[in-house]
Write a structure and sequence with these properties.
13-stranded antiparallel beta sheet; about 5% helix; 130 strands; 12 helices; single chain
Length: about 1550
Amino acid sequence: MENMKFPIRSTKKLCFYAALLVSLTSDLAMGASFYGDGYVQLKTVESSNRNSLRVRFRTSSPRGLLFLAAGHTDYLLLELNAGRLQVKLDLGSGERLLRSESSTQLNDLAWHTAELLHDRHNVTLTTDQYSHTSLRMPGHWSQKQDLTIQDGLYVGGSGGLDKLYLPNDLTGFRGCVDQAVFNENNMVSSLRPYAGFKSVYEVSLGCSPQFFAGGEDPVSFFSSRAYVSLPPWNVSHSQQEALFECVVHTSAKEGIVLYNSARQGDFVAVEIQEGLLVAIVGKGGTKTELKSLTFVNDRNWHSVKMFFTPKTLQLTVDKETVKTSISSRSKGLQLRGSLFVGGIDDSTRSEVRKMGLVSVLGNRVRGGSFKGCLKDMKVNGVMMGLPNAVVTKDISVGCEPEKEPEPSTTMGSTTIPTVPNSRFDPTSVTPTPEFPMFTLARGLDKKYGANFVLLRNLVVSEGGRGSLESKHIKVLLDFKKLGVRQSQIMFRIQEQPVHGQIRLDVDQDQEENVFSMLDLWHGRVIYIHGGSEDPEDFFTFSIFSSSRKEVPTYLQGTRRYRYNITVTPTNDAPELSLPQGNLFVLLENSRKLLTKEVLKATDIDSNHTDLVFSILGNLNPDAGYLEVGDNPDTAVTTFSHSDLEEGKVNYVHTGARNSRIVLRVSDGDKVSNTVVLRVMAIGLEYKIANNTGLEIIQGEVAVISNKHLAVQTNAVNQVVDIRYDVVRPPRYGELQRLHSSGEWKPTGSFSQRLLEKERLRYLSTFQEIQTATATDDFKCKVTVAGRVDTELVFPVTVKWVHYNLVRNAMADMNKVRKVTLDSQYLYATVDIVTLSEDDLHFRVLSSPKKGQLLLVNELLKTNATFSQRNVTDLKVRYELVDRPYEDTSDTFKFQVFSKHAQSQSYDFQISIKADVNSVFIRNDKLSIMEGESKLITKDELFAETLSTKELYYTVTSSPKHGKLARINLSNSNASYNKILTFSNQDLLEERVMYIHDDTETTQDQFTFIASTSQESKSSVTDDEVGSKEGTFNISIQLVNDEKPVRVVDKVFHVVRDGQRLLTLDDLCYHDADSDFSDGQLVYTRRGIPMGDLVLVNDTSHRLFQFTQKELEEKRVLFLHRGVNSGRFVLFVSDGKHLVSTLLDVSAHDPFLSLGNNTGLLVQKGKEVTVTTGNFSVFTNLNVRDDSEVTYKVSEPPKNGWLYRHGNISVEFTQHDLKKGLVSYRHDDSKNLADWFSVTVKVKGHVLNARINVKAYLESHQRPPILQHNNTLLVEESKPVKIDGSRLEVTHEDNLPSEIVFTVKVAPLHGFLRRFVEAEDQYVGTEQTPVQTFSQEDINADNVQYQQTTPRQVNDTFLLDVSNGVTEVNSIRISVDIIPRLIPLQVSNFTLREGGAKALTQEVLRVTNRHFSGLNFLYSLTEPSQNGYIEHSRYPGVPVLSFTRRQVEQELIYYIHDSSETLEDNFTVVANDTGLRKQSSPCTVYIQVTAVNDQHPVITANRVLRVWVGSVTEIRSDDLDAQDEDTPLRSCR
């Protein structure tokens, strides 16, 4: 019922709660206390026909209003009446009453929950979740039955609401309310009022202790308005006698002790006047007073009795009695209304003033209450205390001893109070804010200045109260200068305490939340703590003056002060309640678990593990007993809260049906209230509630829950063991249960609990195709609470699946190597179920023989699967492994399946047509010895087609450990190395050879393409015919061809005339042959002039030959004798190669020295292993076992611990270091530097050493961040500083000095140097440049790049940077070099004879970006010989200089002089006077193309005279011609 909630339908309601949400933010951990006249009011207007109310409360009062929803005529009222819940509801059709069951009394101080549900005509009241009563509202079913609320919602009281439907004697609620939730809104979630929406009156935080007080507990009255209202004082009509008794403790001179009004203006009262008790009876307009003669304001206990009859009045104080007669002739007093003790309420105050009681006269007109303690109150002999109270105000349980009043000094306007230091505890003083004053303001004292407010914390006990006095708040001002009195200093509370409240016992005419210094002097300001566990509280206030005189700003209430309150904790008694009611129902002769829902213990200031439950009285042994799971079947009378939480406490029923258990709980100091749990045993009744069966599709799985199969019992919140044992399992499926491991496993039995948790399922396992209709079921026995009573059959209806192979067509392959199997070849469907193509699969039962099936690029082997979606998406294809010589076919078997079933097997056929151009390759492995060469013949590699054997090979990937060579056609040994092509003809003529590179490899290969075409190919397409790829493998047999190489070469140290093991740390060789073990190396020695080599276990056995394995096993011992130093020869052999070496021996006195000590690097708070790489020692002593080298920690680390084998240790050995058994763990402190000292002992020799430890933060593991990396700009042969703007690396937790750069690749055209301030000079030269520097050096401008190599335009170098933990590698630094000379570049050109050529930027150019835009001057240092340079605007005028811009504008020309010369040149220099730079001279060479522009001229033509029949030579003297631009040989 509690989970049923209805929406609020009124729009106004939604808007209101949205506006109010801000104020309802703080939850009340302990509820709220209502004292009989308090209430919480929420102003709202709403209307709904569905409403819900939930109220959780506890009280000892039999009557009280819990909730009221008030309308003009509609209303909903929930109240306690005679200890039962009563609902009054009127929806416009008349009031209807609904009461809770009479068997349960709810005023037992236990927590109870009332839930009211209004749903149109139906109203249901649920008490403590189990007790239900209901009614149906009158009216037709079509009526809306809305509850219309116009006057708001009330909790705890009606707030004086005047409505006809509210009775005059409506009693307010007195007790605790934890929840008051109306339509999902908790009205007591916060006690902060909200102006215009929410009002809170006389309600406090927490559950007040006074509700749990007994009648004998004293009551303390602490304010002038305090009182206790008791039920009406009934005076016997027959005897007309009345008696009131109590015990008084007070120091007050005045105060009302008792008051009760009567009819016709009569009354009876007891008050204190001047310290004496006075009994007063007003009757018939006559007042009779009787004053005692004993003072009661002496802070001692005094017994008081007041007795009266219609005619007499008697007052007894202690043993003294006074008596008088009542003169009135009227009948006896007819008392009416409440009996007030200790004071009166505000509504009675005016009546009392008319009666003339002294306690309410003068300045006490607003108060008049008794201040002190009362106990043992009796009315007519009957004990009356707080359990009987109707209303209480400003009272507390218990009587705190009153403090002696401090002597008060009336301070005049001239007095400056002093504050003795001894009166204040500095830790309890609240600092006050200072005023920013440069000069002392009027009224401020020089001694205190702006700190004129001195606050001392108020200390109160948890749930207690305390008075704020003048010692707590002092105002230290010069009142004479101010012209005001201290009593005119006023305090305004700006912000109320969070965990308590301030009660001001001041005049009601005084402004709200304001008190004066006078109120502090008289203890009228009281703080009441709410009982929470918070150790402190505070409120804020401001200070102002009530004087009409002008005062400084600091007395105008503009400044806020915070006053702190210290709360001392007290051990509150635990609280015991029955959340589900006091009835505990279980089955006969069974056990039922007691849970926190049945028995709830609450202790806000103790750990639940400390709580212990006790059973009071003797349990009825014939009914049952309590047991704890650790000791079953044994009755217990106590159990812990942990037992209850862990579900170990059971009630075991054994006999009688009705019994009870009385319980309480203790925290070891205090005990809780007592609760009575009624136990009722009922007989077991059950029935088969559900057996619906299951419908499932073949191959699927379905969960069987209690909706399908369930047995229902009459057990109430009790686990009843209901088991189902399967006696006939299903035929076509399997029952499975879900285990705690998350795995479903077959089962033959299950429980009802398993069904409720849906952890049982039916799995359809029959995978074959079912042709006939068949059903399934299983049969099981049902066992309830250990009794087998019935059998049942659970039916399972299976929907069988059928497949249809729509298409299975043969695939034809004609001159192709692959074919895609699409849905035209293969397509299947399914009946009964709807499956996507992704869920319909094919399984390969046998693979094709001549090809392969591929899913994309994945090979489909036997039992591999693919889906119909794969077929549709063209992802399945068949590929030939090799092209066939003849027509053939291929096939593979498959079946169709899904998660439901699998079909029979089918064959898929492939028809394959042969292609005469397909390439077939014989490819057998070549075997070769390491380092040798061998021919590749046709027996190892040969490709051919059906039509030709003339094939050509292109090597696409050469061998990695050798090369291919082609032997020359001649008989010479010459060859063509690293060939990439060869042919079948080369293979047939045995001209292709593989040559191994003699490396230690056992395999090699090369890939190739064999093709009918001679063209080189780099790849082959899938459909290409006449070409084929292949890989040729080469197996290499290793040969022992590597000589042993010495890898450990150092001097062997030994004690003079002593002995020492020779180990691999002293002598070690390595053989690079991969199939050879270094342990097989054999050492042979010759004569040793300074000692001998012997066996370690037999020193008489001299060793002339030993293996490296014996060195490793420490079996070789060196004995020294003779000279102190020398060497001897050793020969080392691997069986084939023999090398010699020398072993240097040095003999000294015994020594023990430090080998290395690099220190430790560890992450903060983490652990690191200490190894010999961090710390080791070196000795010439004969250490045969590493355990002989011991380390003892002489000074342990300060910020960590050393561990050995995981335990803190101060001793370890060299063996432990080598095995990594020693570690250091940092203590996670802020100290990142640590160290420890060790004492090393070896055979009596001692060495002390200190090992430094550096801890780094976790953030140090993150690499440093490169912030700046800008190009360096440097002039040729000059230095440039590398500053932070050019190179900066940072890390969030590292200093710049900890960021270290290391040169990885040095610059080529310069070097790095660093300025050392201590030496006042640079270190680093071109020969020895700087290799490391820090970011701190860069930031200080101490690092430079010095350029050295001339005529370079750029340079680079690489840096690694580290923060000591992580590195950033290869930071490239670029250097841009400004040349010393202008880098002029020239180009030669060609022109025709007599022609002209513009000198453009292609002829004369400066491309360096540093000189771009400069208009420098070109000057001719050597003009041309066969031409000249001219400006195009001044033709024919030679120029010797011109500018760069003129060249860019193509205004400068070279003019040839038309001479018959074929070449020319001129030399030019670029010059810039502003930069003081010029270029090197550059010569431009000009090629001249001759032009035939001259006519030939005959220069000789003589008459030739010859003899008849002779041959005569015609010479140039006889006939000759000349042409200036044509060579003579060209003339004809």
